[in-house]
Specification:
The structure holds two protein chains of two kinds. By secondary structure, chain A is an alpha+beta fold. Chain A is built from 20 helices and 13 strands. Among the domains of chain A are: 179 residues, no CATH class; 107 residues. In chain A, strands 5, 6, 7, 8, 9 and 10 form a six-stranded antiparallel β-sheet that branches. Chain B is built from six helices and no strands. In chain B, helix 2 packs across helix 3. Classes of the chains: A alpha+beta, B mainly alpha. At the A-B interface, helix 10, helix 13, helix 14, helix 16 and strand 4 of A face helix 2, helix 5 and helix 6 of B.
């Protein structure tokens, strides 16, 4: 009964979204403000409606209503309360609803804030947000009803139906199948919402871009309005990616954080275009150039977001992430096609209005280097996209099924990443408008010399691996350039304002948070790069079967096997097997005990391998329990990784958060209008 | 004459028999030796790392926890013990299960060419664009017009630069 109520509310929300799209578009085109206002209210109504729908779903999940198919599939009696709640996004139907719920929250938020200020854009923002939401809600209403119940027909078949079929009785299993144990990890509880927050909030800048195209107000107003949105979206998407990596590292038990899995790539692709977008909008803001390109980038980001959701949810490209599969693929495909074609058609329609206001004057100017940055991001995107669809193309044209695994991506993207790092080192030193080899050379030679020194020291003390040395050189270059820029600013401020160095740093960042937040992000990327270089180039592993008291050695560490124990936890429905191993260094000093584990979940009949980790900045000892003899404990198989420098990756991600929050934190005073010369000035003043 | 030859043949028989015994025992010893020295997990994993079973897509064979994958690893161990090379073992799996067991498409040209061409096309477009954008400026300045002044960066930076100059 309550499930039917939930479905009813869902349907009303779907209709409200549809209505708001039609009313907003019709009202705006025919100058009927009352209709637009009505559309806005309908949009504002969707969020409470969807919150109610979600509330009903969570109620069903928490109260073990296993007659509801979704509840049956993602929960079981043994699961703790918080997992039952978060099971909301643990399956396909629920996660689609979660998507719509976020979409409705964001669109409502935009229309609640500053409706008067952005009066011309907002009706179209409602249209775009509403179409996106209606699409996802339509999926729920017609194909993936989270409230469908299990019925047993007279011939004994049990299937899920929205409405009770004739001659059937409700089927109510006594327990559910339970959430996939891999998803029962804290990282996995936050990772999908983070990713979805990132995905969905990228729809807002897209909606404003489309609004700008439709209304013909194609100056950079839409970019200024959505600048912070975009940064927050980027933050969530990035955090989602990092959390996913950390989850893989902690749970999947393959000693790595990134496997170039199609679904990982699906989340990475909008990040690539989004990052390119964040950089290239600066050109438009400062110089009024490349407006077509920015439009195209945000459109690509939007459709890659939909594509990403589609990949995780359709199962067209099967991968470890495709926990849920269904036949909604073709619809996603059609939706992506239609939105892409319509959006690009709009750009072409407004082509002349998007002409650049100034010209490129130098190939080494900041804007030219930003364009190079965009080219590299697009290059990585092409590699990723090609890698993801190549198996399909191969199967389609040659009938041969192939796997595109990490070696392809690593080989194809690493030169591009290296070039990006070089650019990250040089670009902050180049000036807007005009730079020459001479001016740039004068700025860059000191940091470059410093980086070369660092590299020489590393070559003598740490590694002779050429690729690693190139990598470390680039890392050092970027860090020195960034710190140099930071220091130069702080020193200038210290002198002019008479502040002490710390206050100078603080105020410098506060005065130009976007610039210095960006620098912090660059620094954090370099810390991550250290971790990535370390694990990619220097990871070593060994596997061996040993008896209690015996030990394995790897890269100077001795891992001694002490004991193993196995016990059931009937309440949680898990069997734990835990080994105790001691880790000694080269000199025989005990560094600590590790407890690698294997958990076996009864309801889903799945094992989970939890590593024992001994972390330091130098490296991490990562021990996995692979296999054991339950009876004599004579032979237990361990796999050991030593992952050098990997923890710099996680440190870097923390600094990254600091950087993005610095850049995205709301201003106290109203947005200042940067005035550019000539034509720009007229446009800006006409705009405000 | 005939007798003599018979004798010679007979004379060869003994050393041949001894040789045969020696070879057989050597082979036996080798077999025992091989059993003692089964390929280690590391040797197996080194090959398994580059293989994917058709069921557990996106999970390399060396870390896949399923029973089927464990059996595949044992198969690799067996073949290593038989003295097969890494290439032969991979080829065995390709013949049995198709090219999808490899971590990369066998036709490297096809897999790398498209992204490489797309990227080069991007480079080409960008540089052609640069030339087109910059040319008009060059013509302008050649015809005696004022050189485009560097666009001033935002105020704060300009002040900052001035401060720095004063310091010198």
């Amino acid at each position: 009964m309550i499930a039917d109520f939930g479905y009813g509310v869902l349907m009303v929300a779907f209709l409200a979204a549809l209505y708001s799209v039609i009313a907003a578009a019709y009202g705006e085109l025919n100058k009927r403000p009352a209709l637009v206002e009505s559309a806005r209210r309908a949009m504002l109504l969707t969020w409470p409606l969807l919150t109610l729908t979600a509330g009903v779903l969570v109620y069903l999940l928490v109260n073990d209503h296993y007659e509801v198919q979704f509840v049956y599939e993602v929960t079981s009696r043994s699961m703790p309360l918080y997992l039952k709640i978060t099971a909301w996004w643990g399956g396909q139907a629920g996660s689609l609803l979660f998507w719509s719920w976020l979409m409705s929250a964001f669109t409502s938020l935009v229309t609640l804030r500053k409706w008067e200020r952005d009066r011309e854009f907002l009706p179209w923002v409602i249209v775009v947000g509403g179409i996106t939401m209606a699409f996802f809600l339509g999926m729920n209403v017609f194909f993936e009803n989270p409230f469908a119940k299990l019925y047993q027909t007279f011939d004994g078949n049990i299937s899920a139906f929205t409405l009770q079929p004739a001659n059937s009785i409700l089927f109510s299993p006594s327990d559910g199948r339970g959430l996939n144990p891999l998803l029962r990890h804290p990282g996995m509880i936050i990772h999908p919402p983070m990713l979805y927050l990132g995905f969905v909030s990228f729809v807002i800048p897209y909606a404003f871009a489309i609004a700008a195209l439709v209304t013909g107000r194609t100056d950079d107003r839409w970019i200024r309005i959505t600048r912070r949105w975009t940064l927050w979206a980027w933050l969530f998407l990035s955090a989602g990616l990092v959390l996913g990596g950390r989850w893989a590292y902690d749970v999947l038990g393959w000693g790595g954080y990134w496997g170039w899995d199609p679904v990982e790539i699906a989340a990475f692709m909008p990040w690539l275009t989004g990052t390119a977008f964040l950089h290239s909008v600066m050109i438009q803001e400062k110089r009024g150039m490349f407006k077509h390109w920015n439009m195209l980038l945000i459109i690509l980001t939007y459709d890659l977001v939909i594509f990403g959701t589609f990949l995780t949810r359709s199962g067209v490209l099967s991968s470890v992430h495709s926990f849920a599969q269904s036949a909604i693929g073709p619809l996603f495909f059609a939706f992506i096609g239609i939105t892409l074609i319509t959006s690009v058609a709009l750009i072409i329609y407004r082509w002349d209005m998007l002409k650049s206001e100034t010209q490129m004057t130098s190939m080494l100017s900041r804007e030219a280097l930003f364009l190079l940055n965009n080219l590299l991001f697009m290059g990585i995107l092409v590699v990723c996209f090609w890698g993801v669809i190549y198996p399909l193309i191969s199967e389609l044209f040659t009938g041969q099924k192939v796997t595109v695994g990490p070696p392809f991506y690593e080989r194809a993207t690493s030169p591009l990443f290296a070039a990006l790092m070089l650019l990250m080192g040089v670009a902050p030193l180049s000036a807007w408008g005009h730079s020459t080899v001479k001016t740039l050379g004068r700025a860059v030679w000191k940091p470059a010399l410093g980086a070369a020194l660092v590299t020489a020291v590393l070559a003598l003390t740490y590694t002779q691996n050429v690729i690693a040395l190139i990598g470390f050189f680039l890392v050092a270059l970027v860090m020195l350039v960034t710190l140099y820029e930071y220091g130069r600013g702080a020193l200038a401020r210290q002198r002019s304002q008479g502040e002490n160095l710390f206050t100078a740093f603080w105020n410098l960042t506060g005065r130009n948070r976007r610039r210095y937040g960006g620098y912090i992000i660059h620094l954090s990327m370099m810390l991550m790069a250290i971790g990535i270089l370390g694990i990619e180039l220097f990871q070593v592993e060994t596997q061996g079967t040993i008896a209690i008291g015996d030990s394995l050695e790897l890269s100077g560490y001795t891992i001694k096997y002490r004991e193993v124990a196995s016990w059931d936890n009937p309440d949680a429905g898990v069997n734990y097997t835990r080994a105790v191993v001691e880790v000694y260094d080269r000199n025989g000093n005990l560094l600590g005990n590790l407890h690698p584990r294997k958990d076996f979940y009864f309801d889903s009949q799945q094992p989970m391998t939890i590593p024992g980790q001994l972390a330091s900045l130098k490296d991490e000892v990562y021990v996995l329990l692979i296999d054991w003899e339950p009876i004599n404990q004579e032979s237990t198989t361990f796999k050991i990784f030593v992952n050098p420098l990997v923890n710099w990756l996680w440190l870097g991600s923390l600094l990254f958060l600091v950087g993005v929050i610095t850049a995205a934190w709301p201003d106290k005073d109203p947005e200042r209008v940067t005035v550019r010369a000539g034509k720009r000035m007229e446009q800006t003043s006409a705009a405000d | 004459m005939l007798n003599n030859r018979k004798l010679r043949v007979a004379n060869y028989k003994l050393p041949l028999a001894i040789l045969a015994v020696l070879i057989v025992s050597l082979l036996f010893a080798a077999a025992v030796f091989a059993q003692d020295d089964m390929p280690t997990d590391d040797e197996v994993n080194k090959i398994a790392k580059d293989l994917y079973c058709p069921v557990c897509e996106s999970t390399p064979l060396d870390v896949c926890p399923t029973e089927a994958c464990r059996q595949w690893r044992e198969l690799i161990r067996q073949q290593l013990a038989e003295g097969k090379s890494e290439e032969e073992i991979k080829q065995y799996f390709v013949t049995q299960y198709g090219a999808r067991v490899l971590s990369e498409p066998p036709n490297r040209l096809a897999s790398y060419l498209v992204p490489a061409l797309a990227f080069l096309a991007g480079v080409f477009l960008l540089f052609r664009g640069f030339r087109m954008w910059i040319k008009p400026m060059a013509v302008e300045s050649a015809s005696g017009e004022k050189e485009a002044a560097p666009i001033p960066q935002d105020d704060y930076i300009r002040r900052m630069e001035e401060e720095l100059k004063k310091r010198k």
